[in-house]
Amino acid sequence: MTILFASDLDRTLIYSKNSRGQEVSEEDFAAVEWIDEKPTAFMTHKGLQLFQQIASSISFVPVTTRTAEQYNRVIGLYHNVKKPKYAIVSNGAVILEDGKPLAEWSDKVIAQMQQNSTSIEHVLPQLDTYIKNKFVLKVLQAESWFVYLIIDEQAFSIEDFEKLSQIFYQQGFTLSHQGRKVYIMPTCINKSTALQFVAERIAATTVYAAGDSMLDFDMVLNADHGFIPSHGEAIHKGGHLPPNISITKRAGVLAGEEILKKVSDYLL
Predict the structure, then answer these.
(1) Total domain count, the chain
(2) 190-212 exposure pattern, b = at least 16 Cβ within 10 A, e = fewer
(3) Can you give the pTM of this predicted structure?
(4) Which of the ends of the chain has fewer CB neighbours closer than 10 A, N or C?
(5) Is the pLDDT of residue 239 over 90?
(6) Are residues 174 and 81 part of one domain?
């Protein structure tokens, strides 16, 4: 029997200083990422211990919107455990196997993007108007896969998000608002499909999945057991969530710890 635990990273398992919450004292945080020798992402010490126990006993697959380069900064996560064989990065556009991209997977994604006309080249010209808008601070690309906006959260309204969503949804893109970022993602680039590929590749019999954003929702929904942090964008999907999905009682970094405790309890 092969058990797989797939999880988003940022705002699900690991947290920046701005997103981790105020309920945990500074000495209870464990840094798992550093940029220019400065700690930038955290877990609780208990959460990190639970993660390492889980990753040592079952197949863990990180599933993140981070690029491979950004993912490889999270070295503290694997301080005492072996780095997982598979990692899903760039929101599912790239699957790493032993640290190297699987060409057979990314080639399929590229072919689908070309067929659907959902490349970056189709997005950028339409953003010229929004670049001049008060809420857009910067437009960035995740390699050649998707676009994301750095926004002024105070100036960005629900109406702005809904308008952007309607415009791009009709063209084959999914939007997700996560803190200071708004992702504009081709629908063929998604975590759920990539995870299904990995699950079949390793013949997983049971899948646990966790994630906070709309980019995680289908992955969590399709798992045998899914977890959404209570602060997550995904809980606002609407409608009744099926019984295989649990929402944490805690928010911030403590939600990450709670998810890991629940997964650990399932394994006992």
Answers:
(1) 2
(2) bbbbbbbbbbeeeebebbbbbbb
(3) 0.94
(4) C
(5) no
(6) no
